[in-house]
Amino acid sequence: MFALIDCNNFYASCERLFRPDLRDKPIVVLSNNDGCVIARSNEAKALGVAMGEPFFKIKALCKQHKIHAFSSNYTLYGDLSQRVMSTIERAWPNVEVYSIDEAFLDLSELPLELVDSFCLTLQKLILKETGIPTSVGIGTTKTLAKIANYLCKKVFKIPVFNVAHQREALLKQVAVGDVWGIGRQWSKKLMARGIHTAYDLSITNAHLLKKQYSVVMMRTAMELAGIACGGLVEAEPKQSIMSSKSFGEMQTSYTCVSQSVSSHCARAVEKLRQQHLVAQRLYVFVHTNRFREDLAQYCQGIEIKLINPTDDVRLITTWAKRCLRRIFKTGYHYKKAGICLEDLIPKDPRQMDMFHQPSDEALAKTEQLMGVFDTINQKFGRSTIRLAAEGHSKPWDMRRQLKSPAYTTRWSDLPRVRL
DNA sequence: TCTGGGGTCCTAGGACCC
DNA sequence: TCTGGGGTCCTAGGACCC
Questions:
Q1: Which of A244, A327, A404, A414 is the most exposed place for a label (fewest CB within 10 A)?
Q2: Which one is catalytic: A15, A43, A89, A102?
């Protein structure tokens, strides 16, 4: 038995947690730059706000219905996510944290008759300890647990649901495109073949599916039929780390784009070092605003192999700037830049280049310096100390006009309670 | 005016090996 | 006249997820 615990409207629930005045009110959370809607409360969904809708297109609707909009506040969501996950992990040992707002539980150790009540108790505990409402789907495979969770939210509107009891009848109610692992392209192809529901897929010959699509599709169909094709997955070290952002306003100068690339290097290296990894490849890219058909378009990226695997922000920034110099062309209105660190490997031991190996002394110095960077920035906040390459005024920085306070991670933002 | 960011896995095809 | 069998590694592109 597997359970999938999924936080309801997670970002919206986080925002509402410290704003009791917004309980039962429609709210939406926006992507970076206050661009698109990426989370909606049930009230906002009921008013017809679609997922991914550009904010500027629904501004009138928001005004009309007093929909409260927030810029995204990932520090807050990350912190509340950790609270939810640690509550779950204290209650049950076999947990896979699947995303910021979801966790799978392997409940094989639990007697079958206790599964449903255990999940209900846990759901209540999470709500009590963190204030975040969740839905729990239960099934004999992870895909079925996902389906059960979907039914919880979309069909039955209850906190816990076990799909094992009337699997076939329930699968007939789920469109094939709503199955975990079946996206837009595949669902189009399946429908064209007369496979419309999760049930249809579950009774399609698995080997035929593998031949015509891929092993992924085969596994999904088998899981729907109740044959588990995978258990909980251990957290693996990252294979790549990306940092990129649209600019608040389009940029034309090399200096500004270069400074933003340097900031991305700092952010990516920070993540890299937290995970004790080093990068062997570096990808740098820029592009213009694809929605501005009236402006000339340009989209370019470049990838290089780093001679020695590294986590030194100075080296990575130097190379990233060299890459940028090769792809940057004047005369364009740039909208976005970013970098990606790839081919990540553990820091120790790492294979160095035979002919250009840095001395042990140089490596130790780097480590000492980077350690000081990390310590200062952890203590006083990101980019308290940084390379001059990042610049200071940051004219490209993103818009976040509607951001809520860092209620749980900054002393000055702690909510005040009057008794 | 305005349209997100960050990941993973799989497959096919080409190049290479013995 | 006839032209093997069994592999690995790498990359690009496409699909998916949150």
A1: A414
A2: A102
Q: What sign does the CA torsion over A343, A348, A350, A352 have?
A: positive
Among all strands, which nt has the closest C1' to A264 (CA)? B5
Distance A36 CA to C2 C1' (A): 66
What pLDDT digit, counting tens, does each position of A133-182 carry? 999 999 999 999 999 999 999 999 999 999 988 999 999 999 999 999 99
Q: Closest nucleotide to A190's CA, by C1' atom? A: C15
pLDDT of residue A200: 96
Return all residues near A276 (Cβ < 8 A) that are at least 6 apart. A346, A347, A348
**Distance from residue A215's CA to nucleotide C7's C1', rounded to whole Å:** 21
Task: Examine the residue annotation and report whether A102 is marked as an active-site residue of this protein.
Answer: yes
- Greater model confidence, A352 or A103: A103
Residues near A164 by Cβ (< 8 Å), separated by ≥ 6?
Answer: A1, A138, A139, A140, A144
In this predicted structure, the answer to whether residue A356 has a pLDDT above a threshold of 90 is no
Distance A210 CA to B12 C1' (A): 15
pLDDT of A12 > 80? The answer is yes
- Helices A142-150 and A215-224 pack at an angle, to 10 degrees, of 70
Which nucleotide shows the minimum CA-to-C1' distance to residue A233?
A: B8
* Span CA (A170) to C1' (B6), Å: 33
How many CB atoms are closer than 10 A to CB A52? 9
pLDDT tens digits for A219-278? 999 999 999 998 999 888 899 999 999 999 999 999 999 999 999 999 999 999 999 999
Cβ-7 Å neighbors of strand B: A 31-33, 35-36, 38, 52, 54, 56, 210, 214-216, 236, 238-246, 250, 267, 271, 289, 291-292, 335-336, 338, 340, 398
What own/partner pairs with CB < 8 Å and gap ≥ 24 does A171-177 have?
A: A171/A147, A171/A197, A171/A198, A171/A199, A171/A202, A171/A224, A172/A197, A172/A198, A172/A199, A173/A197, A174/A147, A174/A150, A174/A198, A174/A199, A176/A200, A176/A201
Nucleotide nearest to A342 (CA to C1'): B7
Residue A409 has a pLDDT of 86
Question: What are A409's two structure tokens?
Answer: 């991670």
The spacing between the Cα labelled CA in A327 and the C1' in B3, in angstroms, equals: 25
